[in-house]
Specification:
The structure holds two protein chains of two kinds.
Chain A: H1 13-26, H2 28-60, H3 64-114, H4 117-167, H5 169-177, H6 180-216, H7 218-223, H8 227-279, H9 285-324, E1 344-352, E2 358-367, E3 372-376, H10 383-390, E4 398-403, E5 406-407, H11 413-419, E6 420-423, E7 432-433, H12 434-439, H13 447-456, H14 460-465, E8 473-474, H15 483-497, E9 501-505, H16 513-527, E10 531-535, H17 539-544, E11 547-552, E12 555-560, H18 562-568, H19 571-580
Parallel strand pairs in A: 3-10, 3-11, 6-9, 9-10
Antiparallel strand pairs in A: 1-2, 1-4, 4-5, 7-8, 11-12
Helix pairs in contact in A: 1-9, 2-3, 2-4, 2-9, 3-4, 4-5, 4-9, 5-8, 6-8, 6-9, 8-9, 13-15, 15-16, 18-19
Chain B: H1 16-25, H2 28-60, H3 65-115, H4 118-122, H5 125-142, H6 148-166, H7 168-223, H8 226-278, H9 284-326, E1 345-347, E2 352-354, E3 359-364, H10 367-377, E4 386-387, E5 390-391, H11 397-403, E6 404-407, E7 416-417, H12 418-423, H13 430-439, H14 443-448, E8 456-457, H15 466-480, E9 484-488, H16 496-509, E10 514-518, H17 522-525, E11 530-535, E12 538-543, H18 545-551, H19 553-563
Parallel strand pairs in B: 3-10, 3-11, 6-9, 9-10
Antiparallel strand pairs in B: 1-2, 1-4, 4-5, 7-8, 11-12
Classes of the chains: A alpha/beta, B alpha/beta.
Chain lengths: 586, 570
Amino acid sequence: MTTDTGALPVADRRTVRRAAARLVRADGRAFAAALALNALAAGAGIVGPWLVGRIVDEVRAGRGAAAVDRLALWILLCALAQLVLARWARYVAHRFGERTLARVRETFVERLLGLPASVVERAGTGDLTARGTADVATVGTTLRDIGPELLVYAVQALFVLGAVFALSPWLGLFGLLGLTPVWLAVRWYLRRARDAYLAEGAATSAVAEIVAATAAGARTVEAFRLRKARTAASREALEVSRRSRYRTLGLRTVFFPSVEISYTIPVAGVLLVGGWLHGRGLIGLGAVVAGALYMRQFTDPLDMVLMRLEQLQSSGASFARVEGIAEAPRAPVDPARNPADDRIEVRGVRYAYERGGEVLRGVDLTVRPGERLAVVGASGAGKTTLSRLLAGIDAPASGSVTVGGVPVAELEPARLRRQVVLVTQEHHVFLGSVRDNLLIAEPGATDEELWRALVAVGADGWVRELPEGLDTGLGQGGRVTDGSQAQQLALARVVLADPHTLILDEATALLDPATARHTERGLAAVLAGRTVIAIAHRLHTAHDADRVAVMEDGLVTELGTHDELVAADGAYAALWRTWHGDGGTV
Amino acid sequence: MIDAYGDPGIPDTRGGWRYLWWLALRQPGRSLAGAVFGSAWLVLMAAQPYLLSRAVDDGLVPGRLGVLAAWTGAMFAAGVGCAWLSIMRHRTMTRVRMDANFRTVKLVVEHAARLGAALPRRVGAGEVVTVGVGDVQTLAQALTVMGPGVGSVVVYSVVAAQLLTISGPVAAVVLLGVPVIALLTGPLTRRLQGTETEYRERQGILTARIGDLAGGLRVLGGLGGKSLFADAFARDSGRLREQGYRVGAVTSWVQALGLGLPTLFLAAVTWLAARLAAQGAITVGELVSVYGYAAVLIGPVAFFVEMNYDLNRAVVAARRVVALLRLEPEPDDGTLTAPGHPAELHDPASGVRVAPGRLTALVAARSADTTAVVDRLGRYGPTDALWGGVRLDAVPLAEVRERVLVADNEADLFAGPLLETVSAGRLADEAAVRRAVRAAVAEDVVRGLPDGLDTVVSGQGRSLSGGQRQRVRLARALLADPEVLLAVEPTSALDAHTESAVAHRLREAREGRTTLVTSTSPLLLDVADTVLFLVDGKVAASGPHRLLLDREKGYRALVARDLGDGEVSR
C-alpha cells in the first residue's frame, strides 16, 4: 500500500469486485426484479422479426390479407408490450441505482469522517475532495444511467442471440462465431483507451485553464508584458491537446472499422448457411429471413454495450478510489484515557516529513498552566510542526507530547477539545446554518450558550441582523461570510469548546489592518484565562508573552522571558533590535 | 493537418452565424470532404436493406445458392465500404471540430492578452472562462452539421427515391412518419434534461457538501462534532434519493417512449407493407427492404432534428465569442515624449511624489487608498499623474509599461516551471534569476521544490504557501528590473524574520532605482528613504519612519498597532 508516501490507498481489483457484489446483494431483490423485467421487455422485442419471418412464409403460401393482419397485429401488440415493460424495467433499475448511489456516498462520508487528522493532512484536501466529488459523481453516473442501460442492452443482445439459436442452432453458432473479431477489437481498444482519454481530458483542461488564467490575470499580463508569452503558452497547450486528440482518434480509427466490419460477418454468415440449409429443406425460408434480421438487430444493443464499456471501465477506477479510503489507517484513539491535569509536556520529540529531512530534532518543552508562551523562529525552523504536534494533529516519530500524562494525538476529538485547540487563521466555514457551524464544538449547547459565545467574540451584531438569525445558511447558495466574520465564527467555536490551552498560529498575517481590528477584541476574549502557546510571526506577540522559545533548525535554542533573552544578546536579541528600532517608541 | 501554432486569421465578428460560417470557410476542403463522406456513408448504409432484399428475392427464394452468395458478398463489401466511409467521415469531422476549437481558443487568448488590464473592467473573468471551457466545445460540435448533417438530407432523398419505386403509399407513410416521430421524440429527450435539472442541482449541493467536509476535516478533527455532519449528510442524501425516485418515474417513461415510438411506427409500416405483399403489390424481398429502410431512416432524421438544437446553442456561444473579440483596448493616443532619464512621479490627487532613485514607502489605514494611488501612478485606469512634469496619459502606453512596473500583491502567477514564472516571458540567465530569488529571500522556496527552478508550479501558485507565493512575485518583479517599481504590500504574508531579510535585500537590489512600496510594517518602513503617510487618500505627513513614529500620533497608532497592543495583550 502507498500510505507511507502520504497518498490515500486505492482498492485493488478483488476488493472492488467484492465491494460491488456487496452493493448488489444489499438490494438483491430490486436487482433481480430489474433483470427479470428487462428480460421480459427484450423478449417482447424479439418477437417482431420472428413475426416478419412468419408473414413472409404466409405471403409465400398465398394465405391472403386476413392471416397477415393477425400476425401484424401481434407485431404491434408486442411493440406496445415492449414499451410498457421497458418503462417498468428502467424504473426499477433507476430506483436500484439511486438507492445504491446513496449508500455509496453515505458510506464514503462516514469513512471520511473517521479518518485521523494526520492522514487527512498528509493526503491533502485535494485528493479527498476529488474522491468525494468527481469520483463519487462518476460512480453515480454509472449507477443511475450507464448501469441500467448496460443491463437493458446486454439482456437484449443475449435474447436476440438466443432467438437465433432457437430458430436454428446452426445459424446461432455461425452468428456467434462471426462475433469473435468484435471481441478481439474490444480487448485491444480497452487496454489503451483509458489512459489515452484521460490524457485528452487533462490536455483539454489545461487549455481551458490557460484561457481562464489569461483572462483572470489580464492585468498581470499587461504589467509584465506577457502577451507573447501567454500566446506561446496557449499554443504549447494546444499542441499537447492536438497530440492527445490524434492519439485517441488513432485508437478509434482501428476500433470503429474493425467492429463495424465484424457486424456484417454474422449477417452474411446466417444468410449463406441459412440458404444452404434451406436448399436441403432443413429450415424454412421464414427462419432464414428472421435470422438475418435478428443478426442485424443484434448489432444495435451490442453497439450500445461497447460504447458504454469504456465508461464502465473508468467508473471502475473511480470506484476503486472511493473504496480505497476504507483501507486508510485508523486513528489510534483511546476513548478510555483521561488527562490527569492541564500540564503539557514535550519530551525528546523528533519528527520528519516524507520528503526532506528531520524538521524537529529533539525538542523538550514544558508548558506551565496559565502562562503565555511565544514560539519564534524563521520559516522552516519547525514552529508550525511543533504546533501541529501540540494540537494532536499528528504524533511525533519519537519522544512524546502529553497533556496530563496522556499522548495528545490519542485523545478522541470530544475529549481533545476540552484540552487543546489550535487556532489558525485558515478558518473553514461549513455549508450549513450558523448554528451548525457552532454546534460542532459543543453539540449539546443551548441557543443561549451559542449567543453568549457570539457576544464574546463580537459577532452577535451581524448574526442578529441575518434574516433567519442562527438558522441562516452560510456558504454556497446561502450567505457569504467575509474574512473577519469567518474568523469570528472560528473563535466562537473555541469559546464553546472551552479548552484550557490554546495554540495560536499567526501563520498568515491579515492583509488589511482594518480587518484585523475587527477580530482582535474577539481574540482577546477567547484568550482570557487560558494557557496560550503563540506561534509568533510578529514580534510584539513575543514581547508581551510570559516566556519566549526561540526555534532554530528543529531545536529550541533559547527559552526565557523577553527581557532575559534580550539581555542574553543571542539570536532573539538581534531580531528584536531590528524590529523595534533603536530607541523607538512602543 | 491541424496546426497548434499557426495564425488563426481574422475572424468575422459581425455576428454569431457569421462567425460559425467563417469557421467552416477557413477549412473549405475539409468541410466539403466531411459532407461527401457523411453522405456517401449514409447512402451506402441505406443500400444494405436493398442488397438484403435482392439476396432474399433472387437467391434465397428461388434457391439459387450462387446468386445468394453473390448478393451476400455484395452486402459484405458494402459493409466494409460503410466502415471505411464511416471512419473517414469521423476522422474528417474530428479535424473540422479541432480546427474550429483551436482557432477560437487562439483568438480568445490572443485577444484577452491584447486587452490586458482593460479586460477585467469590461467583462467578468467568468464570462471568458465560459468561453474557454464550454463555448469552444459547443461551437466545434455544431460544425458536425457540415458532414453528417448534409449526409442525412442526402440519404433521406435517396431512400425516398427507392421507396417510391416500391410503393407510393408506403413511401408516403415512411417519408412523413419518420420526421414526425423524430419531432415527437426530440422534445421528449429535452424534457428529460429539464426534469433532471433540479435533481442535478441538489446533487451539486450534496457534492459541494462532501468537498466542504473534506476541506473542513481538520477543524472537525480538532473540535469533534463529526456525528452532527454525518447525520445531516445522511438526511440530505436520503432526500436526494427520494427526489431521484420522482425523476426516475418520469425519465423511465421518456426513455421508454423514445425507443418505443419508433418501434411502434416500424410495426405499423410492416403491417402496411405486409398487406401489400399479401395482395401481391410488392414482393417478399421488397417487404423485407421496407422494414429495413424505415429502420435506417430513423437514425439520420433524429440526428438532423437534434442538429438544429445544437446549431442554436452554438450560435449563442458564437455570439459570446464575438462579443469578446469585438472589445477594443482602451485608446492609447499619447504622443508626448516621456522624460529621457529617471524622473519624479507625481500624483496630484493625493500629493504623493516618488523621488527618482530613492525608496519611498506609502502608508494608509485603508489599503484601498494606497492601491488607488498606485493605480494612478502606474496608469491603470484614468489618471492625471505627472512623470517628470509630463502627463502620464499623454505618453505612449508602451513606454509607460516598459519603464514603470506595478507589482500587485495578488498579481497572477501562471502555471509553468518556476524559472519561467520568475523570468516572466523574458530570456534571463540563471545567475540573474538566482540573484532575484536571493533578493526576494525565496531561496528556501526553490530549495523546497523537487526540481528546484525547473519544478512546474501550478496555476496561481496553488502548490505554494501564501508567503512563498508572495516572495516568488517579488522575485519576478525584481528580475524585471524596471526603472520604476511600484510594489503593493510586498511582505504582508511573511513572518518577522523573513520580512526583515526581505526589507534589507529589497533595498540593496533597488539601490539607485526608483521604488515605491505600500506597507504598514515597521520592518519595511524602516528601510525606506521617505515614508508618505496618507490620511483619507491625501499625504498628511512625510519623512523617515523614525521621525514619523516620534511626531505623528496617527502614524504611530497605525504602525504601532503592529508593534504594541497586539493579539497577546493583557
